[in-house]
Amino acid sequence: QKEVEQNSGPLSVPEGAIASLNCTYSDRGSQSFFWYRQYSGKSPELIMSIYSNGDKEDGRFTAQLNKASQYVSLLIRDSQPSDSATYLCAVMEYGNKLVFGAGTILRVKS
Amino acid sequence: EAQVTQNPRYLITVTGKKLTVTCSQNMNHEYMSWYRQDPGLGLRQIYYSMNVEVTDKGDVPEGYKVSRKEKRNFPLILESPSPNQTSLYFCASSLRTSGSVTGELFFGEGSRLTVL
């Protein structure tokens, strides 16, 4: 079983700061990478997808991918209390299998 | 509104009493999947379906059955539930492009199951 690793947290940041969430994966054949946000008691929702090395920005969110290091990250700029949630990293492994990490809890303190 | 609908949302049952959790999507997605979510373990795939009448096991299929007779529906069946199946269950669907799953999943609201 290939793995997707995330620090469980909680990661606590003050309002307005940059939150940095990290994820490593073991399958070198992986080509697609995703970040899902899950509020407490709710279902996961897709917030970012990234397919090639480098940065991808969408509003306050930036996904970063480094396939050589097998590393994916999510940066949240100007963090807001409403960003407090669990962030799930997901990796599409070779063979069309989507594997989720256990998630990182983010707490943004006002 | 595009959505994945699961029922029931909450269920308490007893060991051995068969139950079915329904899942329906209105987005004409070919791919559907069931996950269970347990603290510290994240989302684990139970079964998935690439299309009508095509289903396959995920990582934790033991004790579960599925069927895909229609494109929109993908029910999860627990023939003889046991306490270790107490969990939060999510159904999800996705488009397929060029035969591959996109990885961009739409999730249902979840079904919290307790087996006593």
Instruction: Summarize the helix and strand pattern of chain A as letters.
Output: EEEEEEEEEEE
Report the mean per-residue pLDDT of chain B as an integer: 94
Q: Shape of chain B from CA axes? A: globular
Low-confidence stretches of chain A: none
Stretches with pLDDT under 50, minimum 5 residues of chain B: none
Could you estimate the helical fraction of the residues of chain A in percent?
under 10%
The structure class of chain B reads mainly beta
Radius of gyration of chain A: 13 Å
Strand percentage of chain B: over 45%
Helix content estimate of chain B: under 10%
What's the tally of helices of chain A? 0
Please give a handful of descriptors for the protein shown.
heterodimer; A: 110 residues; mainly beta; six-stranded mixed β-sheet; five-stranded antiparallel β-sheet; 57% strand; globular; B: 116 residues; seven-stranded mixed β-sheet; four-stranded antiparallel β-sheet; 13 strands; 0% helix
Structure description:
The complex is a heterodimer of chains A (110) and B (116). Chain A has 110 residues and is mostly beta strands. Chain A contains no helices and eleven strands. In chain A, strands 2, 4, 5, 9, 10 and 11 form a six-stranded mixed sheet that branches. Chain A has a five-stranded antiparallel sheet with strand order 1-3-8-7-6, with no helix packed on it. Chain B is mostly beta strands. Chain B is 0% helix and 53% strand. Chain B has no helices and 13 strands. In chain B, strands 2, 4, 5, 6, 9, 12 and 13 form a seven-stranded mixed sheet that branches. Chain B has a four-stranded antiparallel sheet with strand order 1-3-8-7, with no helix packed on it. A two-stranded antiparallel sheet of chain B has the order 10-11. The model of chain B has no long low-confidence stretch (mean pLDDT 94). The interface between A and B is medium-sized, with 21 and 20 residues.
